[in-house]
Amino acid sequence: MVGSCRAADDEALVANLKERAADMNISGSIKFKVNVPFSEIISIFQSASIALHTMKFEHFGITPVEMMAAGILLIAHNSAGPKLDIVGPATETAGFLATDLDSYVKHLLFCIEGCDRQTSEYDKIKLYAREWVTTKFAVSCFEEQFYE
User: Fold this and answer.
1) Number of domains comprising the chain
2) Are residues 57 and 25 part of one domain?
3) Reduced DSSP (H G I as helix, E B as strand, rest coil) percent helix, strand, coil of the chain, to 5
């Protein structure tokens, strides 16, 4: 799990997640990377295949955009930025939107199976996602919209 802690509430959430992992005897299978340098995030993105972004009502979500630009299959919460600006408006599948445990699991299993098999559908989603975000969120795109 990679992310930043902005305040005491975030730190309490991480502590709670670590406790829950310990209670479930899965602590050895989870690494918590909190407030790591950007260079380490880049390294993680270079080796990642699938990303879960579970934040609800994130106003925009640069992290999902960065994940998609890195060629990582994204499963994000079906709300706010990911729904309205990032994954949702794509004309083809650029990622997946989920609202509950069942939909996250369904999409995660699809992605895991695709990663294991290196299917053409998996590659198509990764390529389209990368093209989608690097075009839609390019500096030139923002400049053009700003002038309009």
Assistant:
1) 2
2) no
3) 60, 10, 30
* pLDDT (tens digit per residue) in 106-140: 999 988 887 777 677 888 888 999 999 988 888 88
Residues in the chain: 148
The domain that contains 79 carries what CATH number?
3.40.50.2000
Confidence of residue 148 (pLDDT cuts 50, 70, 90): confident
Query: Quick one: 29 and 55 in the same domain?
Result: no
DSSP 29-44: G---EES--HHHHHHH
> pTM value?
0.83
> With contact defined as beta carbons under 8 Å apart, do 111 and 98 qualify?
no
Extract the tokens encoding 140: 């030139």
Contact in structure between 54 and 77 (CB atoms under 8 Å): yes
Host domain of residue 120 = 48-147
The residue whose two tokens read 């990622």 is 95
**Residue 119 counted as domain residue:** yes
d(CA 111, CA 113): 5
For residue range 45-89, what is the model confidence (pLDDT) as tens digits?
Answer: 999 989 999 888 887 778 899 999 999 999 999 999 899 889 988
Q: Is residue 61 domain-shared with residue 132, that is, in the same domain?
A: yes
